[in-house]
Automatic annotation (TrEMBL):
The gene is xdhC. This is Xanthine dehydrogenase accessory factor. Gene3D superfamilies: NAD(P)-binding Rossmann-like Domain. PANTHER family: ALDEHYDE OXIDOREDUCTASE MOLYBDENUM COFACTOR ASSEMBLY PROTEIN, MOLYBDENUM COFACTOR INSERTION CHAPERONE PAOD. Residues 201-347 form the XdhC Rossmann domain. Residues 13-78, 117-178 form the XdhC- CoxI domain. InterPro entries: MoCofactor_Util/Proc, XdhC_CoxI, XdhC_Rossmann_dom.
Length: 372
């Protein structure tokens, strides 16, 4: 939903009623995750995707029907072996898509949600997708407040608590309760769409490889910072794709960001300086934090020397085990752009539990849960 949120808000603010299809659950090898969304405008134009092309036509028609009739619909799309080219997912997956008509009247909190996302503030939208009477009702949940129209205080409290848990974990998912929000039972299904702030990519070393990494990181949805102690190299003109360019000693900058709570378990650190006076103090800080990824560029000789220095600085084996060095996957990369792809590939593989091998030589599911 994040990628179509601004367009949805723009259309709704202009008085348009928009058909919105949102993936609320996936099973097996589904091509898009929960939260993926597709808009169908009043003139029939389409923005976004729920399946990468497999069921867009069916969702398009359903969205037009829902806008005309006003009743939201939860529809499951799947495939069976004997009907692989009917409307469904030829990849073999199953997705549940919730289709609704969104207007200023049905979603008055939409501008507040967009404002929070733009301000990089965490916010979750919890929509009732299954219930005898409440389908279409929703709550907007921030860490410190709640807005919305779920009629039961019991259900409101349960949904808000669980939505905050999903928001803290950066996950979107469908939750199930008893019909009045009881923790046990069935009858109430709520899809929580989490809009956590984008993860950070901290690139240290203002070199040509950093410029390529900044471009790719921005493309992958990271908030990118490039940091270098040398002001002649760390300039906005050299790194236009970065969200910020910082002139500071790398270890001092990272320590300050950690002290201020601006890094977390999703933060990626790419150390591209391969200069011991910069990267050893920086890695002393980075490897003692709970980050998503810490990688350092350099030859195997550089790596061996770096590890020796880090050991001398007092880092233990379990801390050194968190270092990806030499950085990246073995793709045979030569150029800065190819090297950036190899680094990004390693980050993605570690995030989702991939092995980094060729899919043509593997068996089993292509898409897997984190750590799977």
């Amino acid at each position: 939903m994040r990628d179509v949120l601004a367009e949805l808000a723009r259309r709704v603010a202009a008085g348009e009623t928009v058909g919105v299809g949102t993936v609320v659950a996936t099973f097996s090898s589904a091509p898009r995750p929960p939260g993926a969304a597709m808009l169908v405008g009043a003139a029939g134009e389409v923005v976004g995707s729920v399946s990468g092309g497999c069921v867009e036509g069916a969702v398009y028609e359903l969205a037009q029907e829902v806008v005309a009739g006003g009743q939201p619909v939860l529809r499951r799309y799947g495939v069976s072996d004997d009907d692989a080219f009917a409307v469904g997912l030829t990849c073999g997956g199953i997705i549940d898509v919730y289709v609704e008509a969104v207007s200023a009247e049905s979603f008055p909190q939409l501008p507040d949600v967009l404002a929070a996302v733009r301000a990089r503030e965490p916010v979750a939208v919890a929509t009732v997708v299954g219930h005898p009477d409440w389908v279409g009702r929703r709550l907007v949940v921030w860490p410190d407040r709640v807005a919305g129209d779920v009629p039961s205080a019991r259900a409101r409290d349960a949904i808000a608590d669980d939505a905050r848990g999903l928001l803290a974990a950066g996950r979107s998912a469908t939750l199930h309760y008893g019909p009045d929000g009881q923790r046990r039972g069935e009858g109430l299904a709520v899809f929580v769409n989490s809009f956590e702030p984008p993860p950070r990519l901290l690139v240290f070393g203002a070199i040509d490889f950093a410029a390529a990494m900044a471009r790719l990181g921005a493309f992958l949805g990271y908030r990118v910072t490039v940091c270098d102690a040398r002001p002649v190299f760390a300039t906005n003109s050299r790194f236009p794709e970065a969200d910020e360019v910082v002139v500071d000693w790398p270890h001092r900058y990272l320590a300050r960001e950690a002290d201020e709570g601006r890094v977390d378990g999703r933060t990626v650190v790419a150390v591209l300086t391969h200069d011991p006076k910069f990267d050893v103090p920086l890695l002393e800080v980075a490897l003692r934090l709970k980050l998503g990824y810490v990688g350092a560029m350099g030859s195997r000789r550089t790596h061996d020397d770096r590890v020796r220095r880090l050991r001398e600085a007092g880092l233990a084996d379990d801390e050194l085990a968190g270092l990806a060095s030499p950085i990246g996957l073995d793709l045979g990369a030569r150029t800065p752009e190819e090297t950036a792809v190899s680094i990004a590939a390693e980050i993605i593989a570690l995030r989702w539990g991939g092995g980094g091998g060729r899919l043509t030589r593997t068996d089993g599911a292509i898409h897997r849960p984190p750590g799977g």
